[in-house]
Amino acid sequence: MEDSDRSGGSAPDTDEAPVPDADTAITQLYAVHYAGLVRLAALLLRDESVAEEVVQDAFVALHRRWRRLRDPAKALSYLRTSVVRGTRSVQRRKQVARRSPHELPPDAPSAEHSAMAGAAGNAVVEALRELPARQREALVLRYYGGLSESEIATAMKISNGAVKSHTSRGLAALRPVLEPWS
């Protein structure tokens, strides 16, 4: 009878439970332990929204590495370790940010450039004030408002040709005044 029991259709006796697939196992872990892991991270970070991100990152990392996990029974321990390490990483980044001086990006204009641009802008505004009203309106609508000729014509209630004429005359009048700034 021993031979028939061994060769029967039943599964062999093993001490190991079948290993669930990653999705099922992670879903179960998430349902049972997510809130506790967030509390752990929040106590370490004092910021619940960042704590939630750290815990979510830990679950994502576990899912990615599920097949390489030696003992799925230790998945919760892996998650706790990941959460603690994640909070440490966040704290290190915050410390570095606090210690680092706020530097301008490398392509930021210099103070001199900004001052010159401000002065040039003031010169443009002053030169525009000296133009006749229609020329000033056409130029402002075109270059500051970004309107097309037909949109300017509609706004000013004039023809497209008149817009071209006012714009051309206004630019011609501005050129000599603004030439030193170019």
From TrEMBL:
Keywords: DNA-binding, Sigma factor, Transcription, Transcription regulation. GO terms for biological process: DNA-templated transcription initiation. It comes from the Bacteria. InterPro entries: RNA_pol_sigma-70-like (IPR039425), RNA_pol_sigma-70_dom (IPR014284), RNA_pol_sigma-E_actinobac (IPR014325), RNA_pol_sigma70_r2 (IPR007627), RNA_pol_sigma70_r4_t2 (IPR013249), RNA_pol_sigma_r2 (IPR013325), RNA_pol_sigma_r3/r4-like (IPR013324), WH-like_DNA-bd_sf (IPR036388). Residues 123-174 form the RNA polymerase sigma factor 70 region 4 type domain. Residues 90-99 have a biased composition (Basic residues). Gene3D superfamilies: 1.10.1740.10, Winged helix-like DNA-binding domain superfamily/Winged helix DNA-binding domain. One of its GO terms (molecular function) is sigma factor activity. Residues 1-20, 89-113 are annotated as: Disordered. Residues 29-94 form the RNA polymerase sigma-70 region domain. Belongs to the sigma-70 factor family. ECF subfamily. This is SigE family RNA polymerase sigma factor.
